[in-house]
Design brief:
Number of domains: 1
Structural class: mainly alpha
Number of helices: 10
Low-confidence stretches: 120-124
Radius of gyration: 16 Å
Order of helices and strands: HHHHHHHHHH
Distance between the termini: 20 Å
Mean pLDDT: 82
């Protein structure tokens, strides 16, 4: 295949990934990374490209949530404010290609297990959320966000759901602005580390935005709590497995 055909094929796959991830409140960073690994992108290209596409997808979803007055700023603050500093630090660090794929893949599979088997699944009410644990969750997810290029929401949501702090749909409403902030700051760190997105990123961004628009509409109208958790766990597992075997 020539370069134009490859770019169109990758853009089409990224559109589908963005659509699927948007149904569970995620930007799609892990899926974008898996696609780029499949097509032989270098590790130095994958991370900045994924972060930039995260900004496009999460930016739209955050705007949509704000328009619907559905953002929980009280819950977002202790998660997001400390996370942006660690996202920047993570963005400055550069892992070797094989180490990068293995570490990211293992983390995603662990996250899938947290979502699929939430500790508080049988509880009627969520346990009280303390400020310090919330802050540590944000710090950890932010660092992994910058280090891997996934935006952080894909790690944050399993923590929030797995520990019973939020329902899957509640976590899906918090993730987009968290991803947006961490992806912006992480991209700054990645840029300073000398990594740049691929030249075809604007084409991919158009597809990702279209997928996010359709996926968000599907989520609002048809996705149940159980379906949201199932889809998210499946996405995490297969994306993690794909990165490991690549």
């Amino acid at each position: 295949m020539d370069t134009s055909s490859v770019n169109l094929a990758v853009a089409g796959l990224m559109t589908c990934v963005s659509l699927l991830y948007a149904t569970v409140g995620q930007a799609g960073g892990t899926g974008f990374l898996a696609i780029m690994a499949l097509w032989g992108f270098s590790a130095a290209e994958m991370r900045p490209t994924a972060l930039l596409l995260n900004i496009v997808a999460a930016g739209y979803t955050t705007w949509l949530l704000q328009r619907r007055d559905a953002l929980d700023w009280k819950a977002l603050a202790p998660l997001t404010l400390p996370s942006v500093a660690t996202a920047f630090v993570g963005g400055l660090l550069v892992l070797a290609g094989a180490v990068y794929r293995l570490a990211t893949g293992l983390l995603l599979i662990a996250a899938a297990a947290l979502v699929a088997f939430p500790r508080a699944a049988g509880r009627v009410e969520a346990p009280p959320v303390r400020l310090l644990p919330m802050t540590f969750a944000g710090v950890g997810a932010g660092f992994v966000s910058g280090l891997t290029g996934v935006g952080g929401g894909v790690f944050l949501s399993p923590i929030l759901v797995g520990l019973g702090w939020f329902s899957a749909r509640g976590a899906a409403a918090i993730s987009p602005p968290f991803i947006l902030c961490n992806s912006i700051v992480g991209l700054v760190g990645v840029w300073l580390a000398g990594q740049r997105p691929v030249a075809s990123t604007p084409l991919y961004a158009v597809g990702v935005l279209g997928g996010a628009i359709v996926g968000a509409a599907i989520s609002v109208r048809w996705m149940s709590e159980r379906a949201t958790r199932t889809v998210l766990a499946g996405i995490l597992f297969f994306a993690g497995l794909r990165l490991i075997v690549q």
